[in-house]
Amino acid sequence: xxxxxxxxxxxxxxxxxxxxxxxxxxxxxxxxxxxxxxxxxxxxxxxxxxxxxxxxxxxxxxxxxxxxxxxxxxxxxxxxxxxxxxxxxxxxxxxxxxxxxxxxx
Length: 105
What we know:
This protein is of the alpha/beta class. The chain has helices spanning 40-49, 66-86, 99-104, and strands spanning 19-24, 53-58, 91-96.
């Protein structure tokens, strides 16, 4: 399985995925286990959507300040654009906790 270096999106079983699902951790939670491949969250999502999705996590510093969240937002946009260039028309599902939700919006 191929991974993109910036957000660890792992391809599903199709060349034309319908969705890109990214899990985004919250404040002070860089490396949070729930966003990683093999976690109960990821396994459940993959079992329910599997073949039609790309799955991954988006990592950011987790620092509790506006600058860190703005920087992470810009990096997330870059990652989503890269996915869009490879898979035009794909829809995005961003699942986030805490300030990860501020990054997603």
